[in-house]
Write a sequence for this structure.
C-alpha cells in the first residue's frame, strides 16, 4: 500500500526514482510524485493524479536534475487521489519534503495543535502532519534534521515508512519505519531506499532490512549508513544479499504480470517443492517442522489466520491438516481475529499465511496470538518481510515476486506448502498411513507436469470468456477441497473484471442463492470425479432446470457433465486433495480473459493494492 523509493549518490536521481516507482506501482497507483534536490540545492517537487506514466509526462518539461531524491506512488487512505494529496508533502518552511507509506492515527489531534500554532496545511492527508511536525520542531527548537525526525516519531502514533530530504542538509536522506516495510540498498558511493528490494536490485544486491523504530541516516559523503533508535542509540544491522533477479520482476514477453504469473506456476511449484520432496526416498521434509517438532506434534489445535486469497488457501489447509494430522483446525480472517477475544494458549499453533508478509491485519493477529502464548508458524512469499520476522518459524513458498495485484501463483504455492506441511506433520504424528503418504507425495510431484499440460487450454478459455463477458453476476460452486477454489475463482473475477461473483459450497445453493439463478446468471461449477461427484451432478441439473448457463470444470474424459454444461474445461486426473492446484488454473484464466475482453487493467485493478499495510 503505497510504494516509496529514494536515491542519494552521484548519478541523476530522477530516472532511478521513476524506474523504481514503476516497479513498486503494484503497491498503489492513484497518484505519484517526486522530490529532487538539484545542484544548487533547490527543492523541486512534482506530483500528479494517476499513474507513474502520468507523472513522467507531467515532469518531462521540468527541471529533473539532481543526485538526491525521493518518490512515491500512492494508494489513498486519507484524502482523495489528486495532485495536492499526492506525496511528497512539503513542510511550511519549504525546506523539507517527505514521503510516507502507512497511516498516522493521531493525525487529527496533531494537525489541530499545529494549526493552533499557525501552521497552514495544504492537503487532506494524514501524512502532511508528519512533515509539518518535523519542520515545526526543527524551526522552533532549532535542532538538526535527525533530532527533529526522532522527536516527531516519538509523538506520532501509527504505521509508517518515511523518507525525508531537506534542502538545508543536501547531502543527507533520513528514513524510518514502524509497521511498514523499508529496505536500504548499499551501492558503490550510492544508496537506495525502497518499500521492497525490487527498485534496488538493478544497482546492488546488498541491502539492509530495517526493523520497527529504526531511523537510518544516509549521508552521501560516508561509506556506511548510520542507524539509530528513537533514543539516538546506535543499532547494528547485517547487510544481506538479496536473491532476486531482474527477470523475476519483468513481464518477460507476456502482456501482463498476471498472465506471466499464471503460466509460471508449474516452475514455481517445482521451486516450492525443491529440496523438500524426495520422490526416490518417498519423503517430504520441512526444516521448520523438524526444528520445532515438540510444538507442532503436540498441538492441541491449529488456527489459520490470513486475509483474501491467503484465507482461501487456509480453508484448503484446514482440510489437508485435519485429514493427515488429525488435529482440529480453525480458519479465521485475521481482521476479525485481531479484534476478537480468542481463547488461545501455549498448546495452540497459529499458522499465518501471507504472500506479501506485510498485511497489517495478519501482523496484528500474530502479535495477539503470540501474547496469548501460541506458537506461530508463517507461510509467506516475500523473503525478509515483516511476517516471517514476527513468527517463531515457518516455510517460504518460494514462488518468486508476485506483481499482478490478483494473486495466482502465491495461492497455488501456499496450497503446496500446506500440503507438504500436513503430510510431514502427519508422518511425525503417525496419523497418516504410509500408503497414503507415499501416494500423495508421488502425485504432488506430478502436479507441475499436469499443470503444464493444463495451461494449454488458454485458447478454449479465451473462447468461453468471450461468450460470458457481458454477464453482470456469476455464481461459483464447488464442494470439499474445491469449495475454497470456488471462493477463489469468484474473488479473481470480482477483482479484475468488476463483475459481481459469489462462491458457494454447491449444496448450499438450495438454501438461498438458487433464488438468483436464471438465464442471465452463469454458474461455474467444479464437478471433478471425486467422492462428491454425483451430488454435484444433481446440483448442475437443478441449475439447468432454471435455465442458467453452466461452465463446468470436469475431470478428463467426463461425459455426463459435458452433456449437461454449456462449456466445459477438462482437468487431468489427480488425487482429490490436490485438485485445487489444478482446478484453480482455469478459473484464474477465465477471470483474466473476461477482464481483457472488458478492457480492464488486470495488473492494476481499481481501488486495490498488492500489499495491504493498513487496516
Ligand atoms: C487477491 C489478493 C488479496 C490478498 C490479501 C492478503 O487476489 O491478492 O486478497 O490475498 O490482501 O494478502 P497477503 O497474502 O499478502 O497477506
Amino acid at each position: 500500500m503505497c510504494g516509496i523509493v529514494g536515491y542519494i549518490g552521484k548519478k541523476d536521481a530522477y530516472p532511478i526514482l521513476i524506474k523504481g516507482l514503476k516497479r513498486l506501482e503494484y503497491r498503489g497507483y492513484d497518484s505519484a510524485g517526486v522530490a529532487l534536490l538539484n545542484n544548487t540545492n533547490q527543492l523541486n517537487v512534482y506530483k500528479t493524479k494517476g499513474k507513474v506514466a502520468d507523472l513522467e509526462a507531467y515532469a518531462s518539461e521540468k527541471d529533473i536534475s539532481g543526485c538526491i531524491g525521493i518518490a512515491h506512488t500512492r494508494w489513498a487512505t486519507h484524502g482523495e487521489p489528486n495532485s495536492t494529496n499526492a506525496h511528497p508533502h512539503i513542510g511550511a518552511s519549504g525546506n523539507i519534503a517527505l514521503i510516507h507509506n502507512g497511516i498516522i492515527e493521531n493525525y487529527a489531534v496533531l494537525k489541530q495543535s499545529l494549526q493552533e500554532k499557525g501552521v497552514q496545511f495544504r492537503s487532506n492527508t494524514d501524512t502532511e502532519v508528519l512533515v509539518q511536525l518535523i519542520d515545526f520542531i526543527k524551526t522552533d527548537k532549532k535542532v538538526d534534521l535527525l533530532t527533529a525526525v526522532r522527536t516527531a516519531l516519538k509523538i506520532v502514533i501509527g504505521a509508517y515508512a518515511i523518507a525525508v530530504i531537506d534542502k538545508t542538509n543536501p547531502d543527507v536522506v533520513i528514513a524510518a519505519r514502524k509497521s511498514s516495510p523499508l529496505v536500504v540498498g548499499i551501492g558503490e558511493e550510492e544508496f537506495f531506499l525502497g518499500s521492497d528490494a525490487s527498485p534496488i536490485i538493478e544497482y546492488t544486491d546488498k541491502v539492509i532490512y530495517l526493523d520497527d523504530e529504526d531511523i537510518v541516516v544516509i549521508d552521501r559523503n560516508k561509506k556506511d549508513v548510520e542507524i539509530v533508535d528513537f533514543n539516538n542509540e546506535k543499532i547494528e544491522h547485517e547487510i544481506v544479499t538479496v536473491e532476486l533477479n531482474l527477470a523475476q520482476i519483468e513481464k518477460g514477453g507476456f502482456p501482463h504480470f498476471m498472465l506471466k504469473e499464471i503460466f509460471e506456476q508449474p516452475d514455481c511449484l517445482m521451486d516450492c517443492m525443491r529440496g523438500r520432496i524426495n520422490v526416490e526416498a518417498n519423503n517430504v521434509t520441512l526444516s521448520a517442522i523438524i526444528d520445532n517438532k515438540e510444538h507442532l506434534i503436540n498441538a492441541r489445535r491449529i488456527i489459520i489466520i490470513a486475509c483474501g486469497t491467503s484465507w482461501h488457501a487456509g480453508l484448503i489447509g484446514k482440510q489437508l491438516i485435519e485429514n493427515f494430522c488429525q488435529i482440529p483446525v480453525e480458519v479465521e480472517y485475521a481482521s476479525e481475529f485481531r479484534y476478537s477475544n480468542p481463547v488461545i494458549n501455549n498448546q495452540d499453533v497459529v499458522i499465518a499465511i501471507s504472500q506479501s508478509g506485510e498485511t497489517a491485519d495478519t501482523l496484528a493477529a500474530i502479535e495477539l496470538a503470540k501474547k496469548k502464548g501460541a506458537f506461530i508458524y508463517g507461510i509467506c512469499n516475500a523473503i525478509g518481510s515483516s511476517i516471517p520476522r514476527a513468527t517463531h518459524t515457518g516455510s517460504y513458498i518460494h514462488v518468486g515476486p508476485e506483481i499482478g495485484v490478483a494473486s495466482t501463483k502465491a495461492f497455488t504455492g501456499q496450497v503446496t506448502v500446506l500440503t507438504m506441511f500436513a503430510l510431514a506433520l502427519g508422518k511425525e504424528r503417525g496419523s497418516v498411513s504410509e500408503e497414503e503418504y507415499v501416494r500423495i507425495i508421488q502425485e504432488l510431484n506430478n502436479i507441475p507436469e499436469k499443470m503444464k499440460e493444463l495451461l494449454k487450454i488458454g485458447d478454449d478459455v479465451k473462447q468461453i470468456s468471450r461468450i460470458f463477458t457481458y454477464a453482470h453476476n456469476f455464481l461459483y460452486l464447488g464442494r470439499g477441497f474445491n469449495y475454497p477454489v470456488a471462493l477463489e475463482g469468484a474473488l479473481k473475477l470480482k477483482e479484475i473484471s468488476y463483475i459481481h461473483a459469489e462462491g458457494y459450497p454447491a449444496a448450499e445453493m438450495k438454501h438461498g442463492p438458487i433464488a438468483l439463478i436464471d438465464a442471465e446468471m452463469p454458474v461455474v461449477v467444479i464437478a471433478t470425479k471425486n467422492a462428491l461427484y454425483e451430488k454435484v451432478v444433481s446440483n448442475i441439473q437443478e441449475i439447468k432446470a432454471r435455465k442458467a448457463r453452466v461452465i463446468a470444470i470436469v475431470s478428463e474424459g467426463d461425459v455426463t457433465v459435458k452433456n449437461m454444461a454449456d462449456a466445459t474445461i477438462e482437468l487431468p486426473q489427480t488425487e482429490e486433495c490436490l485438485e485445487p492446484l489444478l482446478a484453480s488454473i482455469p478459473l484464474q484464466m477465465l477471470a483474466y480473459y473476461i477482464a481483457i475482453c472488458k478492457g480492464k487493467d488486470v495488473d492494476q485493478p481499481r481501488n486495490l493494492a498488492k500489499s495491504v499495510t493498513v487496516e
About this structure: The chain has a mean pLDDT of 95.
